[in-house]
Design goal:
18% strand; globular; 155 residues; 3 helices; Gyrase A, domain 2; alpha+beta
């Protein structure tokens, strides 16, 4: 059986940042790494869930909504994947979109999007404060990110 692309990345040298994970036709996948892998320091379920609700909602309400395919957490609890249509956004535009959306989320003061039993399967596990704090941290991390920095680190 072939290894999937994400298993070919050397997780022993991976640090928090924003990376180009893969391109599949016009679908581009960004790796939004929040935690260094295999350190025992992971995003809690509530932190991941809260960031997911804020960022997915803001992406799908942005001017680039038609280019957004998916935003969601990694099972390893170290970050998120953002998939977008590379025919509609360049890498630079996608980075700028993420910078803007994380900046908005860091200042978000409304009710948590999708925070009801009718809208979410685990709505009690959401916190605007946790989501906002992690979004502010990531906003600062990627504030000066460029396409040149999208490459995964090597040993």
């Amino acid at each position: 059986m072939e290894r999937i692309a994400s298993f070919t990345v050397d997780h022993t040298v991976l640090v928090p940042g924003l990376y180009l994970s893969r391109r599949d036709g016009n679908v581009v996948t960004f790796d939004l790494r929040f935690k260094r892998p295999n350190t025992g320091q992971l995003l809690s379920n509530s932190q991941m869930h809260s960031v997911e609700h804020l960022i997915a909602t803001l992406l799908r309400n942005s001017e680039s909504r038609d280019a957004v395919i998916y935003f969601g957490p990694m099972g390893c609890q170290t970050g998120f994947y953002f998939l977008y249509d590379g025919d509609k956004l360049t890498g630079s535009q996608a980075i700028a979109l993420l910078q803007a959306v994380f900046a908005r989320a860091a200042e978000y003061s409304g009710p948590m999007p999708g925070c009801s039993a009718a809208e979410c399967g685990n709505y009690k596990n959401l916190s605007v404060e946790e989501g906002r704090a992690y979004c502010a941290w990531y906003r600062d991390l990627i504030a000066s990110w460029t396409e040149e920095k999208l490459k995964y680190p090597a040993k």
